[in-house]
Every structure is written in structure tokens, then in C-alpha cells.
Amino acid sequence: QVQLVESGGALVRPGGSLRLSCAASGFNFSNTYMHWVRQAPGKGLEWVSSIYGDGTTKFYNDSVKDRFTVSRDNSKSTLYLQMISLKSDDTAVYYCTASFSSWGQGTHVTVSS
Questions:
Q1: Distance between CA 87 and CA 15 in Å, rounded?
Q2: What confidence tens digit (pLDDT) does each residue in 2-36 have?
Q3: Interatomic CA distance for residues 12 and 61, integer angstroms
Q4: Torsion 61-71-105-111 (CA) sign
Q5: pLDDT, position 81
Q6: Which residues 6+ apart lie within 8 Å of 18 measured at CB?
């Protein structure tokens, strides 16, 4: 049974940092293309970042490029999203997804002073 559990969301001030984690189980994590997707209040889903199974290739939405860093630890079956210089526009529920077919429950990030 595929399971994805996000954690690390919090209330943070503009300019602050957070690291999100996504613990995966029930599938071959190291061979799976993983993604972060977010949903801001009242808006649709927005793709944030993707990373190949071996971690060598990464992609970012222009809105987060140079501020967010995706990474993974295949020995721990865990996906990460390091976020710096957070803005109010980054406020959203952040989801990790395995190949866009399995999704976690999401973790809330609120950027507010």
C-alpha cells in the first residue's frame, strides 16, 4: 500500500525558512519520479518542483526557483523541500506525489507577519 506522509509545515514570517519532508512507503521509492505540488487558499493545484529517482535532475516552477530546493534520501525513502526567503504567496497546502498518481495528505505552510 502506497503511503506518503508530509510534515514540516508551519506558520512562518516573510523571509523565513522551512523544510518539508515526505516519508514514503509501499513502493520502490528510489525508482520513482517525485514531485511537490501546492494549493493556495481558494486556488487550484500548482506544480512546485520535481526530482528524478536518482536525484540527479531537478525542476522548479519559476515562482520558486532560487528559493526552494528539492532533494531526496533514497536510503530513508524521504523527499524534502527546503524553502527559504518565503513570501506570503507561498502560503498553501503542500503535497508530495509519486508520479502524480499517489498523493499525501498535505502539510500547511502559512507565511504571515
A1: 6
A2: 999 999 999 999 999 999 999 999 999 999 999 99
A3: 21
A4: negative
A5: 98
A6: 8, 9, 10, 12, 82, 83, 86, 109
